[in-house]
Amino acid sequence: MSISAVLGKTVSIRSEVPSSAVSPPAPLGARVAAVPPPAYSVGSAVFLSVGPSSAVLLFMRVDVLGVAWLRIASAALIFAIWRRPWRKFLALDRNGQTLIVALGAVFAVMNACFYISIDRLPLATVAAIEFIGPIALALIGARIGRNVAAVVVAAVGVYLLTQVHFVGEPVGVAFAFANMLLFTAYIVLAHRVARRAAMGGVDGLAAAMIFGFLFVSPIGLSGAAHAFTDPIALAAGLGVGISSSVIPYVFDQLAMVRLPRATYALFVALLPATATVIGVMVLRQVPSPVELAGIALVMVGVGLHRPQSTEPARVPTASERAPVGGSPRRRPPTADAPGPPLKETA
Q1: Distance (Å, rounded) from C-alpha 55 to C-alpha 240?
Q2: What is the per-residue pLDDT for 29?
Q3: Cα–Cα distances in Å, from 252 out to 127, 228, 248?
Q4: How many domains does the chain have?
Q5: For residue 30, is it within any domain?
Q6: Residue 106 located in a structural domain
Q7: Three-state SS at 248
Q8: Is 324 inside any structural domain?
Q9: What domain range is 188 assigned to?
Q10: Is 221 within the bounds of a domain?
Q11: Is the pTM value of this prediction over 0.85?
């Protein structure tokens, strides 16, 4: 028997939970900002290792430079659909446009050099050489003893990881060092893009990737032509582009906007470690005990580093500002800023 039948009328049961107790979901921007910047750096390092390991497997179906073209082309297509950055780019001043075009050129040449090097050398070795430039950036920005120690420890770890037969594969080593220089340029330019007020962050990254597609096409399009009739290669190239140039570079922008350049550069030390782990899992490139020791030292260096304090300068309050036509008012003495000595009274 129902309650309405007993009472002879319709009963309305309302929830006693106040509407204020159920909070709406936080907006996407707030949730993105709530993630600590180091988490984005770790995520970027993981994807920057997963993507290249997939690219190495794709080398069996597509030319090396063709894989570089597929990576940048697929990323540029995704960014163009997602962000549509061309109008904002045309509204930029000349310095802003030059910065984005330069970053696009770095994307094109850096990826070509990187793929040529990992075609000849182990992934972890290339990642270790790649970190030499960021170590210099981190050392330039290290102003306290703890940060200098962190850079030194990480540098020793990278040295142990860089067990390369320079004589046996000079071409691979040469392209690995060229990639290192270009990766350092990427950090400098991408950090500037992340800090720009006009078309900074992901929008600037999207425009740069489109220019990267224009720059890489003359050197990689012919190598990718075979993939146009191979659906598996096209799908794999799309996956490489998403995992190598979309997700990690977006993570980089989210980290760079809140991290000093030197701090971000040291977090790049995660690359040799993640590349070694992914190399074992995907490519069966097993590290030696010396390389494992190098990974441990790199991780210690990242843990030691502390970003510099970036507290803004104190703005005087209204009571401390000078009145019109008068002299500035003095702040009352505090414990940190003692005033004149007080006169003793009898």
Answers
A1: 6
A2: 72
A3: 17, 31, 6
A4: 1
A5: no
A6: yes
A7: helix
A8: no
A9: 36-304
A10: yes
A11: no
